């Protein structure tokens, strides 16, 4: 396993990180979840990403039990705050009240005194940004988080948040966007801004919810038990399941074979070619998937291969930077 610095900080994270969105506490049984975490640890993954909202807070608890007994200083544990975790009007968003209450809930479920990275899961248009950043600063100064980051913020939002973090003298080091061969919206604005500010990307869905494994075939129903058949996972995949997208993904198979990689390894290795990406988050329902994905660490793809991938996927790849803003909520959920 290779490691990269998170932003301009001294914190090193594994190039492949393990995330438990959708899976833990919902899609797979706890024994399977624990086996996947064990597989991640066995291949050298030390970075684990979760969020309070995943599986209605159950995912944090499952991850906490899975990591119990591991040397805490040898792990990097990330979580997030924003989406609703209860029925109340203040059980959501990035208000001071919700942040300070949510961090305590997350730490309790994770079974730890601190998280290495605490992230704003989305931008909150209903709360003054200064209020949010001061609350994050208080979390850091209380020793409950070492660093702060965000998820799915635009370049302008990153710039505003970073300016306040600098004024408050707290380490704002990361952005967690969706990024894959099929979803490239961060490349034109978020990545250049992040490079300027010293912020790294921790990317989610590098395999495009499994589409880039090639297991979904045009004109055929999705395989039984796949994410596309799951009520939670399937709703995130509608745009990706068109015959045009699936047909073009099938054209990547010979390229992966020539490179000596599985399709999943090619997809994960591809996002890691971007030097602003510190880590690619992978999820799994089986330990074998973790072992397969981890082999993408350290892989270098040559320029001809990258060009061939671009030529195949260009007609179906989403690149519009406005999509980051468009797909984020404008009001608290």
Strand-helix topology:
Elements: E1 3-5, E2 12-14, E3 16-19, H1 30-42, E4 47-49, H2 58-67, E5 76-81, H3 96-110, E6 115-120, H4 129-141, E7 145-150, H5 155-168, E8 172-175, H6 190-197, E9 200-203, H7 231-234, H8 243-250, H9 253-259, H10 263-272, E10 277-282, H11 287-294, H12 303-313, H13 322-326
Parallel strand pairs: 3-4, 3-10, 4-5, 5-6, 6-7, 7-8, 8-9, 9-10
Antiparallel strand pairs: 1-2
Helix pairs in contact: 1-2, 1-11, 2-3, 3-4, 4-5, 5-6
Task: Write up this protein.
Keywords: NADP, Oxidoreductase. By secondary structure, the protein is an alpha/beta fold. It has one domain (3-207, 268-298): TIM Barrel. Helices cover 38% and strands 14% of the residues. It has helices spanning 30-42, 58-67, 96-110, 129-141, 155-168, 190-197, 231-234, 243-250, 253-259, 263-272, 287-294, 303-313, 322-326, and strands at residues 3-5, 12-14, 16-19, 47-49, 76-81, 115-120, 145-150, 172-175, 200-203, 277-282. The strands form two sheets. It has an eight-stranded parallel barrel with strand order 3-4-5-6-7-8-9-10, surrounded by six helices. It has a two-stranded antiparallel ribbon with strand order 1-2. β8 (172-175), α6 and β9 form a beta-alpha-beta unit. The N and C termini lie far apart (38 Å). The model has no long low-confidence stretch (mean pLDDT 94).
Comma- or semicolon-separated keywords:
TIM Barrel; Aryl-alcohol dehydrogenase-like predicted oxidoreductase; 38% helix; alpha/beta; eight-stranded parallel barrel; 333 residues; two-stranded antiparallel ribbon; 10 strands
């Amino acid at each position: 396993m290779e490691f990269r610095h998170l932003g301009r900080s001294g914190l090193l994270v594994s190039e492949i990180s393990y995330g438990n969105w959708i899976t833990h506490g919902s899609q797979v049984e706890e024994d399977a979840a624990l086996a996947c975490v064990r597989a991640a640890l066995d291949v050298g993954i030390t970075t684990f990403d979760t969020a309070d909202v995943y599986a209605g807070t159950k995912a944090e608890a499952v991850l906490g039990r899975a990591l119990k007994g591991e040397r805490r200083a040898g792990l990097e544990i990330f979580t997030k705050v924003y989406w609703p975790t209860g029925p109340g009007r203040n059980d959501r968003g990035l208000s001071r009240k919700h942040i300070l209450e949510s961090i305590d809930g997350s730490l309790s479920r994770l079974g730890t005194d601190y998280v290495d990275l605490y992230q704003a899961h989305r931008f909150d248009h209903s709360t003054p940004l200064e209020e949010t950043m001061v609350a994050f600063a208080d979390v850091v100064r209380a020793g409950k988080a070492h660093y702060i980051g965000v998820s799915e913020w635009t370049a302008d939002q990153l710039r505003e948040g970073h300016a306040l973090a600098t004024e408050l003298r707290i380490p704002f080091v990361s952005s967690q966007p969706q990024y894959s061969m099929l979803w490239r919206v961060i490349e034109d604005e978020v990545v250049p801004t992040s490079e300027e500010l010293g912020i790294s990307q921790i990317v989610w869905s590098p395999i495009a919810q499994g589409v880039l494994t090639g297991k979904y075939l045009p004109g055929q129903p999705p395989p039984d038990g796949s994410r596309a058949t799951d009520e939670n996972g399937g709703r995130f995949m509608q745009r990706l399941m068109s015959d045009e997208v699936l047909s073009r993904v099938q054209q990547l198979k010979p390229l992966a074979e020539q490179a000596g990689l599985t399709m999943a390894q090619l997809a994960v290795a591809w996002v890691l070619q971007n030097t602003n990406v510190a880590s690619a988050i992978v999820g799994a329902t089986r330990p074998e998937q973790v072992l397969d994905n981890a082999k993408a660490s350290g892989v270098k793809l040559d320029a001809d291969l990258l060009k061939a991938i671009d030529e195949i996927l260009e007609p179906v790849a989403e690149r519009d930077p406005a999509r980051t803003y468009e797909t984020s909520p404008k009001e608290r959920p």
